[in-house]
Design brief:
The longest helix has 29 residues, at 195-223. The chain folds into 2 domains: 4-192, NAD(P)-binding Rossmann-like Domain (Rossmann fold), CATH 3.40.50.720; 201-300, N-(1-d-carboxylethyl)-l-norvaline Dehydrogenase, domain 2, CATH 1.10.1040.10. It starts with a strand and ends with a helix. The chain contains 14 helices and 11 strands. With 302 residues, it is α/β, with parallel strands linked by helices. The protein is elongated and about 65 Å long. Helix 10 packs across helix 11 and helix 12 packs antiparallel against helix 13 (268-285). Residues 194-240, 243-296 form the 3-hydroxyisobutyrate dehydrogenase-like NAD-binding domain. Belongs to the HIBADH-related family. 3-hydroxyisobutyrate dehydrogenase subfamily. The active site is at residue 200. InterPro entries: 6-PGluconate_DH-like_C_sf, 6PGD_dom2, 6PGDH_NADP-bd, HIBADH-like_NADP-bd, HIBADH-related, NAD(P)-bd_dom_sf.
């Protein structure tokens, strides 16, 4: 039988002030056993298992944070250890490296009270080394640890369509996948412990660069007199597709650079992309697809 519970932090401002304080825990009973689900404020509230009809067992360092859950029928615990002792699976989602280390390895933390055979899943986004450190501690206690950060945001959480990016023991992944599907639509095993965090960091780097690039393109288009709605329609239907030679990408980025200069629109990432594609062209990659920039970077890194 599976069970689910949750742990969430207070508001971000409080979390930053209290790095050594425990975030709030929620435990929810699914079937007959009890697992633990731990979540950060915004996504955690969307992932609240009680919304699926599950019963909750709750602990929080801020008593007022537990009031809505108590009113909804949750059982209130007196400590994190009280919650952990009730759990056969623990899922945490916390704001930072420090929070994860404190909750798992700190005084009164999860690893002090965890039972042998407990499944531990951390859905925070943290450094891969943190996941490996927690996994090592869990292994000493006879518990099994997976890192499983999420992708999709609050809307995906609310509709149970999150993607979990997982690192851990492949032989045990089926059980983890079954549990995560209570909260998401997909769980991808990327490799051993730490791989989920590594993949999430790479994905977020791409997301950040892409978002800045999109912002630069939109700003440039608006300064050139385009209707932003029409430009977004073009971007959504045309960008990100292959089948375009690197020399043509370099040429078009040169045009964008010129337009940006004339309109006094800053495009730092666009300028860097332009320089990279120019170097590719001069290095014999002119006729290769512009998506081959990945292969070019790999070659240059050797």
């Amino acid at each position: 039988m599976l069970a689910l519970s949750s742990l969430t932090t207070a508001a971000a401002r409080e979390a930053e002030k209290r790095l050594t304080a425990y975030p709030r825990y929620f435990s929810n009973v699914f079937m007959e056993d009890i697992d633990q689900f731990a979540a950060s404020t915004k996504i955690g509230s969307c992932l609240n298992p009680s919304q699926q009809g599950h019963k909750l067992v709750v602990y929080d360092v801020f008593p007022e944070a537990m009031v809505p859950f108590k009113e909804a029928g949750a059982t209130i615990c007196t400590s994190p250890g009280d919650v952990v002792m009730r759990s056969s699976c623990v899922i945490t989602m916390l704001p930072s490296n420090a929070h994860v280390l404190q909750v798992y390895q700190g005084e009164g933390g999860i690893l002090e009270s965890v039972k042998r055979g407990t499944l531990l899943i951390d859905s925070s986004t943290v450094d891969p080394s943190i996941a490996k450190a927690v996994a090592a501690g869990a292994d000493k206690q006879g518990a099994l640890f997976f890192d499983a950060p999420v992708s999709g945001g609050i809307m995906a959480a609310a509709s149970a369509k999150l993607t979990f990016i997982v690192g851990g023991n492949s032989a045990e992944f089926a059980a983890v996948q079954e549990l995560l599907q209570v909260m998401g639509s997909r769980a991808v095993l990327c490799g051993p412990v730490g791989s989920g965090q590594a993949a999430k960091i790479c994905n977020n780097m791409l997301l950040g660069v892409s978002m800045i690039g999109t912002a630069e393109a939109m700003n440039l288009g608006i300064r050139l007199g385009l209707d932003p709605k029409k430009l977004m329609e073009v971007i959504n239907s045309c960008s990100g597709c292959g089948g375009f030679a690197s020399k043509l990408m370099a040429k078009d980025l040169s045009l964008a650079q010129d337009a940006a200069n004339h309109s006094q629109s800053p495009i730092p990432l666009g300028a860097l992309a332009h320089q990279l594609y120019r170097i590719m062209v001069l290095s014999g990659w002119a006729d290769k697809d512009f998506s081959s920039v990945y292969e070019y970077i790999k070659e240059e890194d050797k």
